[in-house]
Amino acid sequence: MFKTRITEMLGIKYPIIEGGMMTLGRAELAGAVSAAGGLGTISANIHESKEELQEEIRRVRSITDKPFAVTISMFPMEMPSELTGDYLDAVIEEKVAVVETSGRSPENFIGRLQENGIKVFHKVPAGRPAEQYAVKAEKIGADAVVIAGFECGGHPGVNKVPSLIFIRKAARAVSIPVIAAGGFADAEGFVAALSLGAEAVTMGTRFVLTNECIAHPKVKEHLLKMHESDTMLAQQSIRNTVRVVVNAAAERALGMETREARFDELISVIGGGKGKKGWLEGDMDAGLMACGAVIGLVDRVLPAAEVIEEIVTGAKEIVNRLNSIMR
């Protein structure tokens, strides 16, 4: 067992967290990750009402009685603002263990969540200096801060600071627990994150390639063939940078950005509904599909429990090996 402030805070066995994963952040995977000793996560943003989110929360509880998280993304184009209150009502009424926020500051409602016994993890990209947003997360009272390094799938921010630097700087700058995201998929990465000062890792891309993830089999087959160079950045022109699979939609978006296309033109390519079609129907060119550079390290589809077990077992072996070479 790897005991950290995160495992102690939540009463979980391992400091391994499933990323929210938007379309793919459903009960099947979240329940499996939590049942295996990690912290599973479902995405609020894919639900169109409070009642839909509550139903998904209850589906997780039908799989496991272990703690899990709900992520609420407040990036542009990802959440209608009128649903924010509904999502908050749902997680409070259902008494979830953790809410992860991102995109904008949760300062206006963090107190309400914590008053109802919910831990708040806020995910941040690098600022200038890199740790700027992590420090702000601590100041507004977040229970932990999730550090999204440049390698991550989804939104790495605009400052392009890699995890190796960003995690270390954040851990030095804040006293709350740091959770490492961006570039983690195996035992080696897990140990590296802990050595940098993180107290848990968040993995999205690795958990896509699990039996319980609802991604279409054609998507999983395609991802298994990808290298770390098969991801790219899009949406930089609108300061909503996202790391995605290199596909026809991403190349088209990049071309439009290069010629400084208007937002109303760009949205026809980057709209989230098209990416959802890709994930669920197996059309790899339908839209933008978030994916981390760490895909180059993933070569098998496994049950979520086996992914966690491999990481933990491998990490113990690494620690023992390092101990053996110390003189």
DSSP helical segment count:
14
Residue-averaged pLDDT:
93
CATH topology of the largest domain: TIM Barrel
The domain count comes to 2
The spatial strand order of the largest sheet comes to 1-8-7-6-5-4-3-2
Class derived from helix and strand content:
alpha/beta
The proportion of residues in beta strands is 5-15%
CATH class of the largest domain: Alpha Beta
Cα gyration radius (Å): 19 Å
**Count of extended strands:** 10
Query: Span from first to last CA?
Result: 25 Å
* Parts with pLDDT < 50 across at least 5 consecutive residues: none
Q: Can you write the helix and strand succession as a string?
A: HEHEHEHEHEHEHEHEHHEEHHHH
Structure characterization notes:
- The protein has 327 residues and is an alpha/beta fold.
- The protein has 2 domains: 5-214 and 300-325, Aldolase class I (TIM Barrel), CATH 3.20.20; 217-293, no CATH class.
- Helices cover 42% and strands 14% of the residues.
- It contains 14 helices and 10 strands.
- It has helices at residues 5-10, 27-35, 50-63, 84-93, 110-115, 132-139, 163-173, 187-195, 205-208, 217-224, 248-258, 263-270, 272-281, 304-325; strands at 16-18, 40-43, 68-73, 98-102, 119-124, 144-148, 178-181, 200-203, 231-234, 242-245.
- It has an 8-stranded parallel sheet with strand order 1-8-7-6-5-4-3-2. Strands 9-10 form a two-stranded antiparallel ribbon.
- Helix 2 (27-35) packs parallel to helix 3 (50-63), helix 8 crosses helix 14 and helix 11 (248-258) runs antiparallel to helix 12.
- The chain is globular, with a radius of gyration of 19 Å.
